Amino acid sequence: MNGKRDSGERRVSVDLAERIVSGDRDAETELFQRYYRRVRFVLARRSQDFALAEDLAQETLLTVLNRLREGTIDEPEYLNRFIQQTAKYVYIAWTRKRSNQTEFRESVDDSPDESAVDSAYEREETRRIVREMINSITVPRDKDLLYRYYVHDQDKAVICDELSLSTEHFDRVISRARSRFREMARARLSCE
Amino acid sequence: MSKNPAGDMVTRKYLRGELEGTALDDFEARLIEEPALFEKVERESALMEALKAESASLLESNNVKASRSSGFQGLLSNLARRWAMPAWPLGASTVAITACFVVAFIYRSPNLPNTELLDRIVYLDETRSSTSDAAVALVAGESVLLAIDAIEWDGAADIRITLRGENGVQEYRPGGIGDDYQFLVPVSRLKPGDYLLTVSGRGVERLYVLRAE
Questions:
Q1: Contact assignment for A87 to B180 by CB distance below 8 Å
Q2: Which long-range contacts (CB under 8 A, 24 or more apart) does A26-34 make?
Q3: Which of B52, B56, B163, B211 is the most exposed place for a label (fewest CB within 10 A)?
Q4: What is the dihedral of CA A145, A147, A151, A153, to 10 degrees?
Q5: Using one digit for the tens of pLDDT, what is the confidence trace for B40-89?
């Protein structure tokens, strides 16, 4: 299964790289469409700053695109690894520059930019969905379980012990919460 | 969830910021490569962050509520005191947040009598009944709400709940099973000692041993 998935992904990567080298502009767009959200997520986890992650993700993919255009990526079948490493070094470079830029950023960041507003809206929407999901759970102990797991980072074994739950019950509650959250998020997206 | 516990564990470590070095690099590379994994982890992250944000705002609103409500004031001010202790910042804040949620659940519970006297909820399900080795531990003097799993008695009309101790027997008549499939039984200021809680109806009987110390 893993092998199939890997070889499939690698074929896509090689194909994308070859098309970009040959000057295919659609392939360049495809590169951004395919990887932007994932790279932004990884960088947001590292930086804990969603707006910054958007800038760094752009920078990462532009760097990757330039290397692909130049044909200087040795193993295009490992494009995902190259993107990950590039994102990591872009982030490290940013942290090195950060202290020098602090004063500049403070003077520039007086008003929120559009992407910051967008991400705040996204977060508020997500919270609304989670609120609805929680309100739809009628068993107090199941709510307790979710808060212990997601908010207090308690381990499954500890939660099961303290709430006298079987691991099957625990799995059911978490799985149901995830499904409800997914369905509600989908429903919300389809309404927009 | 249980289909891939090892995968869940790595995801959880990643979201807690506990992955480092090559383990972090490898997981990030997989996130970039595997759309299904990425979707799952992104959702999990959103769920976690939104719950944390909700938790913080609910804590805030409950603290405001506590300052207005004499019933929970003692409990919450006690928790707030513990929360403020510098030696226990994380543990105590966890206690405070959890307790505030317990309080919030109490507020929302539709068939709950006499909420103002309660210190906490104690969940009783089959695994804590007399078939289990350990007695259910209570603190003498506190007032608790016993939330008893009641699904076996759904629809039964002859439910009887008794609490038997050295000083006699207390009988409870539950109003019925709510949406939560639980009987909610408030127990106030138990004296130290062992108690036997019996739930019976429709030919089914379950026993719990409670120990107040």
A1: no
A2: A28/A65, A31/A61, A31/A64, A31/A65, A31/A68, A32/A61
A3: B56
A4: -10
A5: 898 888 888 877 776 666 555 544 443 333 333 333 333 333 333 332 33
Residues 6+ apart with CB under 8 A from B148: B124, B125, B161, B182, B183, B184, B185, B197, B199, B208
State how far the Cα of B168 lies from the Cα of B162, in Å rounded to an integer. Answer: 10
Tokens 């799952």 map to which residue? B40
Instruction: Kindly report the nearest CA distance between residue B158 and chain A, in angstroms.
Output: 23
From chain A, the residues in CB contact with B109 under 8 A are: 140
* Chain B touched by A11 (CB under 8 Å): no
Report mean pLDDT in 10-residue bins for chain A, 192 residues. Answer: 61 88 91 93 91 92 93 86 94 83 53 56 74 76 82 84 85 81 69 53
Q: How far apart are the C-alpha atoms of A68 and A34, rounded to whole Å?
A: 15
Q: Are the C-beta atoms of residues B188 and B138 closer than 8 Å to each other? A: no
Q: Which of residues 31-90 of B touch A (CB under 8 A)?
A: 31-35, 38, 41-55
Instruction: Tell if the CB–CB gap between B55 and A85 is shorter than 8 Å.
Output: no
Residue B206 Ramachandran class (φ > 0 left, ψ -120 to 50 alpha, else beta): beta
**How far is residue B203's CA from residue B197's CA, in Å, rounded to a whole number?**
16
Among the partner-chain residues B2, B28, B54, the one whose CB lies closest to the CB of A131 is B54
What pTM was estimated for this model as a whole?
0.54
For residues B144 and B187, the answer to whether their CB atoms sit within 8 Å is yes
Residues of B in contact with A84 (CB under 8 A): 25, 28-29, 32
Sole residue written with tokens 């932004």: A40
Interface test with A, best of B47, B95, B107 (most A CBs within 10 A): B47
